[in-house]
Amino acid sequence: MTVIAFAAARRRVPLAAGACLLSFTAFWLAQRAADVSMIDLMVYRAEGETVRAGGDLYALRTTEAHLPTTYPPFAALLFTPLTLLDTPAMRMLATLGNLLLLIAFVALSLRLILEERLILEARFGLEARHARVEAVLWVSALAVWCEPVWTTLRYGQINLLLAVLVLWDLSRRPGHRWAGLGIGLAAAVKLTPALFAVFLLLTGAAEALRRGVWRPAVRHACVAAVSFAGATLLAAAVLPYDSRRFWTRMVFEAGRVGLAEDTANQSLRGVLARLLHTADPGPWWAVSAAASCALGLAAAVAAALRGERARAVLCCAATALLVSPVSWSHHWVWCVPMVLALGVEAARRGGRLRWAAAGAACLVFCSYALWWVPHGAGRLELAQNHGQMTLSGLYVVTASAFLLAALVPVGRSQAVANE
Fold first, then answer.
1. 261-276 as b/e, with b when 16 or more CB fall inside 10 Å?
2. pTM, full prediction
3. Which of 256, 261, 258, 259 minimizes the C-alpha distance to 272?
4. Chain segment 125-134, per-residue pLDDT in tens
5. Neighbours of 101 (CB within 10 A)
6. DSSP 85
7. Distance CA 244, CA 241 (A)
8. For residue range 168-212, what is the model confidence (pLDDT) as tens digits?
9. Which of the two ends of the chain, N or C, has the fewest CB atoms closer than 10 A to its terminal CB?
């Protein structure tokens, strides 16, 4: 029966490819019809131009929104090739690149979630790979329409690139020579992925205490740290003034990124700002972020020790998004593997609760519900009522529920899920 299913999958690959191409084309047309600004891409280009001109990177204000530079100097170095393109070509290539990155992100997510692929592909060869290709194409065709992915492409953001770098690392076999390089480079571009290195280090320490086997995870974390340091030192050599300013001052100014209460800020700090009707939740955020970081990393390490790699990685990603001072909705592209993991677990193990969880998570990230509330000029978010605050905090609620569920071993929750 398995051989027959794989053979059928091979015949369905062209259909899946056609559906993916049709979905991407419709998406491209919809974005053009919406006259998207790709405003963040324009900021990236302005950063590259500032580097080439020898200007002050962190004094930059660009676009009609007067947006500042918020990433580390290494990111600006990477953006300099954008200055060689005119605006239409840059936007077209950025959109095409992000669509290809989405396919790569889905493929890596499935590789991490479906770890038995190696056994299947070794046994059935090309047939198993055809089944995986078909799944990647169908999922990509649907995932492009979820709110974080739509908004990433709308703004010309780099979220998918960073997520692919991280997942490329974490979907490798333990002890892979280059594992850690992607996390280090991603953290050098944007600091949030550095939490994955912390997770790996804690996992190695926990494994050493339990079994004395610590080398793969700790080596992984060390390669990430060395990669981050190398990229950062390279930026410091090329941009010494900007590097000094960023690491001594700008890195501590969370307000440069945007208003904490903005409905697009799907972090704990954003939810607390709206809940408390204040632009600065202060110690409330510090305490909740510390507790969530401890809980999230504990859930990630516990899952890793149980051999549940996908759940461990997703717990770390959810934790990083929750505790970051600002996690814009487009940062939540990690919803794609999260929903996939919940769906695969429901299909494998059954149970109404699991199917309900997968469906609810999919609805949250595809409904665009956070934009149904008052938002925009005038700081309208500070006056949201309880219903509006619930809608504008759904990403945080979903991620928190995912972390709490991850603290329970899969086997132990089987009876509850089947009720």
1. bbbbbbbbbbbbbbbe
2. 0.91
3. 261
4. 545 676 788 8
5. 21
6. S
7. 5
8. 999 887 677 788 899 999 999 999 999 999 999 999 888 877 776
9. N
